[in-house]
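Allow me, if you will, to draw on your knowledge of protein folds for a short while. The matter concerns a single protein, recorded as an amino acid sequence and a row of backbone structure tokens. Could you please explain, in whatever detail you think fit, how the structure tokens follow from the sequence? I remain grateful for any guidance, and I place the record below:

…
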Amino acid sequence: MKIAHAPGELGRARRAAAIGTFDGVHLGHRAVLDAARATGLTATAITFDPHPRTVVGDGVELLTTLERRLELLGEAGMDEALVIRFDDELASLTPEAFVDRYLQALGVEAVAAGGGFRFGNRRAGDLALLDRLGFDVLAVAFVEGVSSSAIRDLLRAGEVERAAVALGRPAEVEGTVISGDARGTGLGFPTANLGVSEDMLVAANGIYAGSALGHPAAVSIGTNPHYGGSERRVEAFLLDFEGDLYGRRLVVELWRRLRAERAFESEEELVAQIARDVEETRAAERPA
């Protein structure tokens, strides 16, 4: 998938644009993307960074980084993605000015978006306006129970299996592997400690079965109460993995929540529980 940050990088062509922030690229987003692809025109995802709510709202905990969002848009079969910087200047554009600067400049003929899509200053633009301006408007129906907000609520509750149903894929946590306390190595379960961006949503504290780099992964999210920790961390033990992960970007899938985190009476009891967690992880199945 070709990625651009200005219309001029793509040039004019017969395009169908799917417009949205697409945080999480969940099943509702996929319906919009599929509608653009079904036209047979060049399928172009028009997305925004940073998330508009960080500029004109109260902020938002993100489900995906921009890098991961673009990967998922490519996996969804889009030909191109135009990433538009969302700032005060963009927010002040009239709907007509937005259309002229981006849609007309790209040669867009069809626009796919959710039925409640709004754009331009004071959210004055809608699909009816695009229809009046001559675009072939593809209004995509809301997918029942599927929204980025609902998925955030599920992840905050640790309900990763239900979140996977709405996402159409497993929930994830993403970060760069950084140095940790190396306690896992001493216990016989070396973990990758993820540095996660502060604007990302991380599922509820607990122990999860998941995967990373094609390996099953037992994942700990929380403060490590057995050792009196206070800093929230994400640590993943990749089963049957050998190699150095430091400094590497890691996308960790969360398949199932195994248990809550807790302190143990002894380190031996902790090690025995981790061993059970690992065996549960080995037997876990990836959500469809």
Notes: The two ends are 25 Å apart (CA to CA). The chain has two domains: 2-140, 171-283.
